[in-house]
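Pilot study result, target chain (329 residues):
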Amino acid sequence: MQRLGAGSAWSLSPNATFWALVFGTFACYLLYGLVQEQLFATPGSAGLRGLGWTVTLYQFTLYTIMSKVEMTVRGIQPSKAPLKTLGAIALLTVATMGFSNTSLSYLNYPTQVVFKSCKLIPVMVGGVVLQKKKYMATDYLASALLSLGLIVFTLADVQVSPQYSGTGLVLISSALCADAVIGNVQERVMNKYEMTTVEMVHKSYMVGTVLIFGICLVFGELGPAYTFLTEEEASMTFIPMTLFSVTGYVGIQFVLALVKWYGALTAVTVTTLRKAVTMILSFIFFPKPFHTGYVIGAVFLGLGLALNTLNKRRKDRIAAQQQAQALPK
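Predicted structure:
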């Protein structure tokens, strides 16, 4: 038997706990995605289209506050990770979320989701170029299918999206590359300095808040943001902005719990399925031009993601067999 969260009065079976975490992940991130598109990519959101960094600043500020509250409630003592290292992680976090939010001013939301699902591509490129890693042929096939899916999906978006821009492509690609790097860096730092995940979230977002404030000053966003958000009608924007931030933070906790109790592969599978549902809901709740290229690109992407999942499962099985063989008999 497992408990659904520390201090919970409800004891659940492993199967019930798994489905509770899956439901929590879907509920939080589906709402997160719908609110994000409503904030940036609908006709009524025109006032926020040039204020992507300001919205990210608000999001980082709330993440910092919520993680500090969680650390206090749980009695977590801070580690001694150097500020320089935390600054590097914060910079990657800022790039991941800031570029991702800002890209929605230039791309359809489904296109943004598709790009975020293809982390394998920059991971493999970095592994080959920087670490001289060798991959299986099926890894390259998965990467090729993902790349082909991205190309087809993007070409379809170019033809039907009135707000498509190459700038959005550059922004979401930059966010994808930063996201591909940050996981390995976070894991190394947490292991080296015995840092908990909530402390990692708190410190990286705290430093990131300072960095984004500086970015907003440089790009002159704070003045227009204040003017827009103090207007009587625009003041209601704080409600979806807060919901966007809270659902994102709570969603992180569900995903981390999935990783801890059921493994990274299971968590990746759940989040990938969630992204597919998010794309479908995007077309339902926010009607937009449709193109058959979206379907064809999605098929290639699905095949690439499925092959990538099978590759990970095979590698885990081989590693487990090698570990078992190494044990003394």
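One observation from the pilot: Residues 1-10 have pLDDT under 50 and may be disordered. A full batch analysis is planned for the follow-on phase.
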